[in-house]
Write a structure and sequence with these properties.
It is built from 12 helices and 13 strands. The protein is an alpha+beta fold.
Length: about 425
C-alpha cells in the first residue's frame, strides 16, 4: 500500500467520526454542544430553518417616495432596507430575510422573520420611522403645553442621528424601566448647549411626532447622557432602544400585508421532502450496486459519507454569523447534488471499464479511469458552480438558498468522487 492512500484513508475516517458526532441529535445527557460550551462558543449547533420550515411572519412594506427626488429613490429604499435589517437583527430574530422589490414606481421591502408570530410586535418594530427629535420653548413665549398641542416649541438641532447608543435601565427610585441615551461628541455639545439655555424650562422629547416626555431642566448636562422615562414596560423600552440603536427610517413605510406561517405547515413539508430524499437515495444505491457490483458498493459508501459531510457543514455553519438557512428550495438543491455526486462516479467507472477492456491491469485501470474522467467531471461541475454564482448574485430569498446549498453540495461531491472513492478502490484492489 502506498503511503498517500493510507494517510487519506485515516483522514477520511477522522472526518467521518467528526461528521457523525456533529450530526448526532441531543439524546438524554449527551449533547454535542457541550464541546462548544467548553470552548466559550455561545451559539448552539443546530440546523437553521427558514420561514417555510420553521414558521414565522412575512410582511410586505411599501415606501412612500412622494417627498424623495427621482434620483434618490433607489438609495433611499436601500437605506430603509439597511435600517430594517439592523432592527430585526438587534431584535434577536434568527436569519431574517430582508429584500427590496421595485416594479415601475412601486418601491417595496419584503421582510421574512422565522420563528416570530407576534405580528403586532413586528409592526411596531418595523413600521415606525423612529424619528427622535428634541424641542425647546420659544424665547418669546412661556410654554405650558406639549409641542403636539400648541406651536410654542421649536425643534432644536439635536436628533436621533446624534445618539451613539442606547440601553434599557431601571429608575433607582421607582424601579420602572427607562431608556438611557448616550450621545456622540457632537450630540454631547448640542445637548449641553440646549440644557444650558433652558434651565428651569421644559425640553420636549418627541418620537414620530408623538410626545414621549417633557422634563424640566434642573441644571446643565455636560456628560452627554440622558434618560427617557415614561410609562414604559420592559418590552416597550427594549423596542424603543432597538429602534434608536438601528436608526431612523429615511422614508415612511406602509405595511401592505402581513401573514403568519404556522410551524406545522413547515413540519409537514420537511417530512415529505426528507421522505422523498430517502427514497431517492435508496433507489440510487440499488441502481449503482446492480449496475456496477462491488464498484457500486464503494460508490454508495462514498455517497453516505458525502451526505454526512454536507449535513455537518450545514450544522457547523450555525456557529458563524453567516450560517446556512435551510429552506425547502435548499433541501431540493441538496437532493439534486446527491444525484450529481453519483454522476462523477459513473463517469469514472465507465472509464475504468474501457481501460479493463483494453487489457490494462486493475491498478492501471483505476488510475487511468480517474485521471481521464477528471476533465469531464471538472468542466461539468465548474459550469454548475458558475450557474450557482449567477443565481446567488442576482437571485433573492429562496433562490439564493438553493444556489448556496447546491454549490456546497457540488464541491463536496467532487471531494467524494475524486478522493473518497479513489482511496477506497486503491485499498480494495491492493
Amino acid at each position: 500500500m502506498r503511503r498517500s492512500p493510507r494517510y487519506l484513508f485515516w483522514l477520511i475516517i477522522v472526518l467521518t467520526v467528526l461528521a457523525v458526532f456533529f450530526n448526532l441529535p441531543k439524546i438524554g445527557k449527551f449533547d454535542p454542544n457541550i464541546v462548544f460550551e467548553k470552548l466559550n462558543i455561545q451559539k448552539e449547533l443546530v440546523f437553521r430553518k427558514g420561514l417555510d420550515l420553521e414558521g414565522g411572519t412575512s410582511l410586505i412594506l411599501q415606501a412612500d417616495m412622494a417627498k424623495i427626488s427621482s434620483t434618490q429613490k433607489t438609495s433611499a429604499l436601500e437605506s430603509a432596507k439597511v435600517v430594517i435589517d439592523r432592527r430585526v437583527n438587534l431584535f434577536g430574530v434568527s436569519e431574517p430575510i430582508v429584500q427590496t422589490s421595485v416594479v415601475n414606481n412601486d418601491y417595496r421591502i419584503i421582510v421574512e422573520l422565522p420563528g416570530v408570530t407576534d405580528t403586532q410586535q413586528v409592526r411596531s418594530l418595523i413600521g415606525t420611522t423612529a424619528q427622535l427629535t428634541f424641542w425647546e420653548q420659544e424665547a418669546s413665549r412661556s410654554a405650558t403645553a406639549s409641542p403636539s398641542a400648541q406651536p410654542n416649541f421649536v425643534q432644536t438641532n439635536l436628533s436621533g442621528a446624534d445618539i451613539k447608543q442606547t440601553s434599557v435601565s431601571f429608575d433607582p427610585n421607582t424601579g420602572k424601566p427607562q431608556v438611557t441615551l448616550q450621545f456622540t461628541s457632537d450630540g454631547t455639545k448640542k445637548f449641553a448647549d440646549i440644557t444650558k439655555r433652558n434651565i428651569g424650562k421644559p425640553v420636549a422629547i418627541v418620537l414620530d411626532n408623538q410626545l414621549i416626555e417633557q422634563p424640566t431642566v434642573q441644571q446643565a448636562i455636560l456628560t452627554g447622557d440622558a434618560v427617557i422615562t415614561g410609562s414604559f414596560t420592559i418590552d416597550t423600552a427594549n423596542a424603543l432602544s432597538t429602534q434608536l440603536n438601528a436608526g431612523a427610517l429615511p422614508v415612511p413605510l406602509k405595511i401592505l400585508s402581513s401573514s403568519v406561517i404556522a410551524p406545522t405547515l413547515g413540519a409537514q413539508s420537511l417530512e415529505k421532502s426528507l421522505f422523498a430524499g430517502i427514497v431517492g437515495f435508496i433507489i440510487i444505491v440499488i441502481f449503482m450496486v446492480v449496475l456496477y457490483g462491488r464498484l457500486g458498493v464503494v460508490a454508495s459508501i462514498a455517497l453516505v459519507l458525502y451526505t454526512l459531510f454536507t449535513l455537518a457543514i450545514f450544522k457547523l455553519s450555525s456557529l458563524t454569523p453567516y450560517g446556512i438557512t435551510l429552506t425547502l428550495s435548499g433541501i431540493a438543491g441538496f437532493i439534486l447534488s446527491i444525484g450529481m455526486a453519483v454522476d462523477a462516479n459513473i463517469l469514472i467507472f465507465e472509464r475504468m471499464k474501457e481501460e479493463l477492456r483494453a487489457d490494462k491491469s486493475k491498478d492501471v485501470a483505476i488510475e487511468l479511469g480517474f485521471s481521464r474522467a477528471w476533465t469531464s467531471i471538472r468542466d461539468s461541475n465548474i459550469s454548475t458552480l458558475i450557474t450557482c454564482l449567477v443565481l446567488y448574485s442576482f437571485g433573492t430569498g429562496i433562490v439564493k438558498g438553493f444556489a448556496l446549498v447546491l454549490a456546497i453540495g457540488v464541491l463536496i461531491s467532487m471531494f467524494s468522487a475524486i478522493v473518497i472513492t479513489r482511496t477506497f478502490l486503491r485499498l480494495i484492489y491492493r
